[in-house]
Amino acid sequence: MPKNILIADDNAGVRTLIRTYLEMQPDFEVCGEATDGVDAIEKIKELKPDLILLDLVMPKMNGAEVASIIKRTMPTVPIILFSVHGEKIGKSLASAVGVDIVLSKPDGISNLVESVKSLLYVA
């Protein structure tokens, strides 16, 4: 059974790119997409994904805020914060809000796929 992943990013092009790369993997399925932080929380509660991929900078609520809310109700679901600002986010902040991995978008999509694999198959 494929692992379900929810993508939350305010940029449609980025969501499409991430979806394409993730769905090229035989064990991954994107169960939903969210366009802002509030939309992400609603879809996460509804879809109950196996992994959540959050952009840091989104309208209405940022990815760090979403992560801290979701970790309270779904503490075992892995969260990746994938952001242009990834390198600026300290590990202590990521840990404090419940993010498992912080990745910088400029580091490329292949790092994202490998990180998803490591969280879903180690967790």
Features:
alpha/beta, Rossmann fold, 21% strand, 5 helices
Structure overview:
It is a single chain. The chain is an alpha/beta fold and 123 residues long. It has a single domain, classed as Rossmann fold (3-Layer(aba) Sandwich). It is built from five helices and five strands; from the N terminus they run E-H-E-H-E-H-E-H-E-H. It has a five-stranded parallel β-sheet, with helices on both faces. Helix 2 (37-47) runs parallel beside helix 3. The mean pLDDT is 85.
Please identify, by name, the CATH architecture.
Answer: 3-Layer(aba) Sandwich
Oligomeric organization of the protein chains? single chain
Derived from helix and strand composition plus strand pairing, the structural class reads alpha/beta
Count up the helices.
5
The counted number of beta strands is 5
Tell me the number of structural domains.
1
| CATH class group | Alpha Beta
Short description:
The chain is α/β, with parallel strands linked by helices.
Please write out the topology.
Blueprint: E1 3-8, H1 12-23, E2 28-34, H2 37-47, E3 51-54, H3 63-73, E4 79-83, H4 91-97, E5 101-104, H5 109-122
Parallel strand pairs: 1-2, 1-3, 3-4, 4-5
Helix pairs in contact: 2-3
